[in-house]
Each structure stands twice: as C-alpha cells, then as structure tokens.
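Final report, results section. Input specification for complex C-07:
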Amino acid sequence: MPRNADGSFTGAQCVAGALDLYDIAGKIRLQLLAVIAAERAR
Amino acid sequence: MMKLLANPYTLIGAGLLFLLAVSGSYLKGRSDGRAVVNAQAMRAMKKGLDALEVRRVQVDHLNGQLASAQSAQSTETREIFHESVKIIDRPVYRTICGDADAGRLFDRARTNANAQLAGEPAFTPARASSNAP
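Structure output:
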C-alpha cells in the first residue's frame, strides 16, 4: 500500500493499493486453480 | 535290419541326428520364447507410453488454458490501472483518507498474510504487478 512519509495515505494511494491487491489475488487464484486442475488430472 | 543296427557308424549317425534335432528344437523354442517376451514387453511399453501421452495432452491443455486466462487477466489489469490513473487525478482523491495508525494496521495485515509454515523456508514473492500506477 503506497503511503506518505508520515504514514498517512490519500484516496489515490488507497485506490492504487486496493487495485494492486486485487491484481495479486487474481494471479494467485489462477495459479491455485491450475495446480488443482493438474492434481485432478494426475 | 539287425545288421544295420549293429553297425556302430549307423548308431553314431543316429545319435548325432538325434542331438541335432534336440538342439534345433531347443534353439527354435528359445527363439520363440524370446519373441513372446519381447512382444509382451513391447505391449507393456506401448501401454505406458499411451498413458503418458494422454497425461501430456492433458497438461498441455491445462497450460494453454492457464496461459490464456493469465493473458486475459493481465490485459484487463493493465486497462484497470490505466483507467485508475485518470480517476485518481480528481481532487477528491488528494485528501487524506487514512493516518499512520491505519498504515500500521496494513503493515500488520501484510505480515500476517505472509506468515510462513513451520519449518518451511521463507518465501519472498516477486512483485506481482509492475504496471501499478
């Protein structure tokens, strides 16, 4: 989560952090789905 | 007839013929047996290779689906980030919406999310996105 030097953060930084988190979560989810599918195939 | 049987050369010849026949039968049987075993081994190997091929096709299919989904997701992420850059320029997003206490909570939540399994080496994921605004 991006933030200012004093630890506070603006709405813009909050939006950026939230979008970043969704991006990471989506990538992890896809990897997990692939692992589960591969395990089922095995 | 008795005279013929009494002849030692005839007996030796018959004995040699017998040995030749037995040896021939042994060699032929051995060759047939080897061919049978080879055929069984080939069938087993082909069965194994067929099973491997099926798994390979499944894994290739999965990899293709994963690559396709990742590509689509990545494209959409880029568009979302691009769109967000335009939005967060608005004045409303310049105001402070959280202080240092909230920042510390974020830090704790991040540490908690990165908790390791006991006995497992620490895992440091690469930054998932390089196109963040």
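Helices of chain B lie at 2-6, 8-87, 100-113. DSSP finds three helices and one strand in chain B. This concludes the modelling results for the funded period.
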